[in-house]
Each structure stands twice: as C-alpha cells, then as structure tokens.
Amino acid sequence: MAVTYTDPYGPPWKLRWWRMVRQWRGSIWQVLWLEWLMLILLGALSITLTWALFPDFVLNAASLPLMDVTQHLYTRFQAAIGLMLGFYTSTMFSRWQDVRQTEGKVIGVVLNTSLQVSSLISAAHAVRESFWASEDVRGTHEFSQTSLDEIKPDTKPPAALSENDVAAVQFTLIRWINLAHALGCGLLYEKRASFLANLNQLVDRGLLTHAEKHILEAAPPALANAKYALPLTWYSSLVKELSLDPRFGVTAMDVQSLNENPSRMRSAIAHQVAIKNTPVPLMYRQLVQATVRSYCTILVILAGFSSSVVENRESLGLDKIKQSSAFPACGRTLPGVYRDRGGRARQIQAIYNGPGWRDTGAESTHFTIIVALLTALRTALWTIHPSKRDS
C-alpha cells in the first residue's frame, strides 16, 4: 500500500508557497518573476506612449500591414516557443532527476558500507579490558591481550588487540565514508551557503579532524572539485593495512568486499559533480533566451496596437471582427484589427508594393518612433539584466 505524505508548500490557498519562492535564491524570485515584471512594464509603457503622445494614432493603409506582420510573427513565435521551451524544460528536469536518483544510490552505498565495516571488522577474538587482573597494566597500557592464556599481571604482549581498537577502526572507516558524501554534496550547492562546503563546520560536527582539514586545504586547485576522493583513498589504505595485520582477521575477500562500495560511491559522486559543472550548451541556451525575448518584444508592440483607436476604417471598406488580444488570458479583443469581405490580401499586397506607402502620413512616423523607443529601452534593460543563466 502506498504511503502518502503531506506537502506543506503545495496547497496554493495556504500561501505557504510564498516562503518557498523567497527561499529559492537565484531561481523563481530573481529570474522568472523579474522577467515577467519587465514584460508588464514594457507593455504598460507601450500603451502609455500610444495614448499620451499619439492620441490620433490610427491603423490606416500604412500601419495596418505592419500590424498584420506583427501579429503573424506573434502567431509563429507561439509554436516555436512551445516546442523549444518543452525540450528545454525536459532537459533541465532530466538533469535534476538524474542527480536526485544518483544521490539515492550514494546514500544506499554509505549504508551498505557501514554495515559491511561493522560485520567484517569485529572484535570477536579480542580480549576485553575488564579481563585484566592487574590495575597497573590496565591503567598504563593502551591495548589488551589477544589470548586469555597469555594473560600476565604486569606485562603486555606486542601483538594485542582490544574492543576499543576495533571500535576506533570502525568509527574511522565509517566517518571517512560519510565525509566523502558530505564533501560531494557540498559541491552541488550553488548561490547559497551550505555547511557541507565549509571545512570548519565539518570539524565542529565531528566528520573531519584538524589534521585532515589541513590536508584538504593544501590540496592543489586542480583537485578543488575532487576532494571527496581523498577520504575514500584513506579508507582504502586503512583497509589494506588491516588485511596485513592478523589481529583484525580481515581476509583478501573481505578487502575486495570493503572496497567495492566505495568505488561505486566515487563514480556516483563524480557523475553528480560532472552534471553540475557541465552546463547546457551555450548556443542552445542563447537561442531559447533570444526567442523568448523576441516573443516578449512582439507582445509589447501588440499591446500598443491593441490600445489604438481606429477612426478611418470606412476609408478602406473594412469590417471590424473580434480577434484574440496579444494577452489571451485577459480575454480582450483587438479594437484595431479589421478584415474586408474579400480580396484583402491583394489590397495589402498592393499597399506593400505601392511607390510611397512609407510616406502615407504621420501615423507611420509615430509608429516608427514608438518602435525605436521600445527597442532602446529593451537594449538598456538587457544591459542591466544580463541574459546569462546558470544551468
């Protein structure tokens, strides 16, 4: 039976999603919302300029073809943007899903390695310190004997092992495995603070010693994104030393089993870091961003057109029909779009091919001024808000 969990951010009517949006630094709050804010401001500016500067602006024989061209581009861009953003979103989500699934594998490897260390490196044959008969020996020596037959009140054999030694070895191996995981996760964070990327905080939490901290800090810059491999190297070296010491009873098969999971863990963390450090191809990102911004520019121009007042529709013999606005969600109509009863394509073609359709009146000049102002404003906003985004 499936187990369901409550989502504290999901229900929109509780407004808890607002805190999540504010906490996502560099994501929705700084990118998506800012882009829409710029689009709304540009659209409002286009409408305001049309109403305030050119109250008599009309769609006549000169400006009506420009309106048709703009609306045609708007329709064409809709299909292109839907396709491009679909692939773009799928690419980003697949990368995120890959990192998430790999992180689950890493957590499983850490758990399996900890269980192997606890089972293969044991103190079954070690002598408990409480078995010593001499308080003097217990207080002055670190190790106990391996055999009860060799117990002497005031001496310690050179080959001795205690449960404390086994526990220290187990703790060190498991700590190094978790340290490698922590260092790998610290490399995945971006544009926000994480204690996993701070060596001092790892020392405070007991995952790192001061000597190991100095070794990691002294690593060359080429290993900046591969420091997670150092604890795994220490792990393998200690396992090899344990196999050479007969007191721990680690066989060659145990060494192979103990080193198998860390190797998988190293490959999984390297895969995660590679995804994070390998962005989406720049040309593809630039193409998507240029297409979206061009589409937004067309929306701004159509916003100005939709606010125009047509006064001379009878001069062209056109009939007014309802047509979707540049902002379909608003449910508005374009008051300045007209169609004739037939043969309008030939009439517009004649207007385009006419000798002086660009000089038909002041309206064409007004439209050119509006487009120039919007283009200059858009260029300034692009300079203030760069288009480069992190992957």
Automatic annotation (TrEMBL):
Claim: Repeat is one of the keywords in the record: no
Compartments in which it is found: Membrane
Keywords: Membrane, Transmembrane, Transmembrane helix
Cellular component GO terms held in the UniProt record: membrane
Residue ranges of the TM segments: 32-54, 74-93
The keyword Transmembrane helix is assigned to this record: yes
Main location: membrane
Residue runs in coiled coils: none
InterPro entries listed in its UniProt record: Bestrophin, Bestrophin-like
GO molecular function: chloride channel activity
Family of the protein in this entry: Belongs to the anion channel-forming bestrophin (TC 1.A.46) family. Calcium-sensitive chloride channel subfamily.
Protein known as: Uncharacterized protein
